[in-house]
Amino acid sequence: MDTIVINGGNKLHGKVRISGAKNAAVAILPAALMSTGKISLSNLPDINDVRTLIAILENLGVGIRRRGRNAVELKPARLRGYSPPYELVKKMRASYYLMGSLLARFGRAEVPIPGGCDLGPRPIDQHLKGFAALGVDIEIEHGLIKLKVANKMRGAHIYLDVVSVGATINLMLAAAAAEGRTVLENAAKEPEIVDVANFLNAMGASIKGAGTDVIRIDGVSQFGSAEHIVIPDRIEAGTFMMAAAATGGEVVVEEVIPKHLEAVTAKLREMGAAVAVEPERIWVKRTGKLLPSDLKTFPYPGFPTDLQPLSMALLTAAEGTSIITENVFDGRFRHVDELKRMGAQIKVEGRTAVVEGGLPLSAAPVTATDLRAGAALVVAGLMAEGETVVSEAEHIDRGYEQFEEKLRGLGASIKRVRSRSGIMVRKPY
Ligand code: UD1
Known about the structure:
Strand content: 15-25%
Helix content: 25-40%
CATH superfamily of the largest domain: Enolpyruvate transferase domain
Largest sheet: 4 strands, mixed
CATH topology of the largest domain: UDP-n-acetylglucosamine1-carboxyvinyl-transferase, Chain
Bound molecules: uridine-diphosphate-N-acetylglucosamine
Number of helices: 14
C-alpha cells in the first residue's frame, strides 16, 4: 500500500480546479450500458473508481476510447453479458448501479454484492424492494445478487423507507426502461441524482422531478446516443475549502456550482472563515481564530456526511467544544482513533462526537480507513507541525483526482511514497 507523507505547517494559498463529481460519474458510467448508440462523457474525474468502472464496462463488451485524462467515448451496442466480474465489482460500492442498468438493458443482472468504503452496515434493501416492486425476481446466493424479469418490468409506486442516494439512482435506472409510469417517493435530492437524470433524459429517458423528493419516470423501450458533461465534485470542493480554513490560508476553488455547497459555506462562515461566492468560484480565507461549531449531517441539502471527517479535523483547531452528529451512517467515526493519535481530544457516544478543540495537532503515523477519512487525515497532517505519514493511501485515490498534486500546487509539502512488498521506501521531498 502507498503512503502519503506530509510536512505540516504550511498555509494553503492559491487556486485549485475542481474535478467532475465522483458520485455522479460512478452512476453515469453504468447508465451508459443502457444505450445502443454512442456515448461521449467529459469532465469525468480521473480516479480509481472511474477506472474500475471503465474496466467493468470493457469486460462486459463496451467499446471504449479514452479522450485524454477526463473524457471517454463508449459504444455499448454489443454487450457480451450481464455478469460483471467479482474481482472488479468488489473494489467499489457504486458497482451496485450495474443492477439497475443491466436490468434496464437485459431484464437480467448477476452482480456480486458490492464492496467500497466500510462505513458500518450499508444495506441495499431499499434498492431490492424497489426492483421487486418493478416486477424483478431476486435471489441472493453465494455472494451473488441474481435479478431476473419474467416478462418486462412494470412501472410502480415506490416509497423509500430511508432517503437513499443509491436506491434513488438505481431505481431511476431500472424504471427508465419499465413499462408505464414509476413514482419514486421520499427520493434523495442530491445534485448527482439530477445529473444522472439529465444524462438518462439525454439518452431518451423521460424522468421528471429529480432533485425533489418525488420523481416520476415514464419508461421507454430504447436509449440512444448522448453527450454529457459531469457536474463538479462538491465534496472535493468542500475538502479544499476546509483545508484552506484548517491551515489558515486563502484558497479559491474554481469551476464549482456554489449552490451545491451552501451548507458548507454557511458552516465555514460560522467557524469564522471568510467566504466569498462568485458564479463558478468560491474563495475561502481564514486569518483569525477558528470558532467551535455544532454540526449535524443530513441528506442533501443538509451538511454532507462525506465532509464529516474533514470537518472533524478542522474543528480540532477551534478553541472550545464542538458537537458533531452523524445522522446518515451508523459507523462513520473510524477516523476518530486516527485523529486521536495526532493528539485530538474527541469522545464518541453513539452517533455523536464531542471535539475539544484548540490544542495543536502533532504529527504521527496514521491509517486511512476509508476515502473521506483518508482525506481528513491528510488535512490533519497539513495542520500538524512535523511529518505525518498516512498509510493505505489507495483509499484516497478512489475518489480524489491528483490529490497530492493539487495540494502541492497550493503550497503543501506532501509526497507519495510508493511501497513495494509492504516496505516503505522514503524519497526526498
Ligand atoms: C452515497 C454516496 C456516498 C454518500 C452517501 C450519503 C455514492 C456512490 N456514494 O452512498 O458518498 O456518503 O450517498 O450521502 O453516491 N440505506 C438503507 N437501505 C438501503 C440503502 C441505504 O438502510 O437500501 C441507508 C444507509 O445504510 C445509510 C443511509 O441509508 O444509513 C444513506 O445511504 P445512501 O444514501 O444509500 O448511501 P450510498 O448510496 O451508499
